[in-house]
Amino acid sequence: DTEVTQTPKHLVMGMTNKKSLKCEQHMGHRAMYWYKQKAKKPPELMFVYSYEKLSINESVPSRFSPECPNSSLLNLHLHALQPEDSALYLCASSQGEYGRGRETQYFGPGTRLLVL
Amino acid sequence: GESVGLHLPTLSVQEGDNSIINCAYSNSASDYFIWYKQESGKGPQFIIDIRSNMDKRQGQRVTVLLNKTVKHLSLQIAATQPGDSAVYFCAETPNTGFQKLVFGTGTRLLVSP
User: Fold this and answer.
1) pLDDT tens across A69-92, in order?
2) Which residues contact A40 (CB under 8 A, 6 or more apart)?
């Protein structure tokens, strides 16, 4: 089983709203990732959690706030977003180690976000 | 900075043909390479991977070739089917900082019946 689930599938929010994206995996993976993908572009890394600790923040604006409540869950809290933040937000997970394919990242279906 | 690029943005093939999608990478420290398939409205799906100590790896209907001399990666799909229509991304990671996948720009594969 290589399933990563994400909710909601679609989200429309105003610039003053607060919303959260959720991601879940039950593969026992210890690294989880948030990516942003604009249309016709490759995914861009935002955050990495490794063993429930934030290990990489790719200089993401503070209006995006990640949270890892436990090893299976990853949230992305959104506040005061801009229209240019509209994109597909992808979650991924990996075993969290290097070598023998353990670094392979498996992606969820994404949340399509529209900021009005 | 380092980048992973693709030679062709769109590849059109007939059903039953073999498809070859190419990718160039520039980071000589790249150690691990992955091909992903992304269908419209979905997340990237893992297809096949290869490590730098190999030059070929085969899966079901797919083969990945790695040429480290010219820093070139290719994905071969045998007997292409309409269900193979998607955007294909190559991605690479060095052995240090392996959690930072670097994606190529993507190639759209269009399969005509």
Assistant:
1) 999 999 999 999 999 999 999 999
2) B106
